[in-house]
Design a protein that fits this description.
Helix content is 80%, strand content 0%. It has 123 residues and is mainly alpha-helical. The chain has one domain. The chain starts with a helix and ends with a helix. The model has no long low-confidence stretch (mean pLDDT 90).
């Protein structure tokens, strides 16, 4: 199932936070915010979570691409009805890793709305 496997690996790379994926942007912003607030332990935990993700995504790569199949059964590629949404999501991981204006703008607007609402409640 090469097409299915490739899309899953793209999702795994985004989970790790590889540059050029949406996961990188989210990890970068989380680490940056933690460091700005002086929360070094939190920043280190975020980085550690990426390193842990490397371990299990690599295990997936080993299983999908580097190991020999144990079964004699022939496996067919997933049907198009499954591949299409899978690849839309995989390509979205890459697209939003480069086109950051949409996601950063939405996140900034949401944060401003939350902060505006909470400051009104404090008075």
């Amino acid at each position: 199932m090469p097409w299915t496997s490739a899309a899953v690996i793209i999702g795994g790379l985004s989970l790790i936070g590889v540059p050029g994926t949406a996961g990188f942007l989210s990890k970068w912003l989380l680490v940056q915010a933690a460091l700005e607030q002086g929360y070094w332990p939190i920043a280190m935990l975020i980085v550690a979570s990426s390193l842990l993700a490397v371990v299990y995504v690599w295990r997936l790569v080993e299983t999908l691409y580097l190991s020999t199949p144990h079964s004699e059964q022939t496996i067919q590629e997933a049907p198009l009805s499954m591949l299409l949404p899978l690849w839309i999501m995989a390509l979205a991981c890459i697209y939003f890793g480069f086109e950051t204006d949409i996601t950063l703008g939405a996140a900034k607007a949401a944060a401003q709305a939350l902060l505006a609402g909470s400051s009104g409640m404090l008075h």
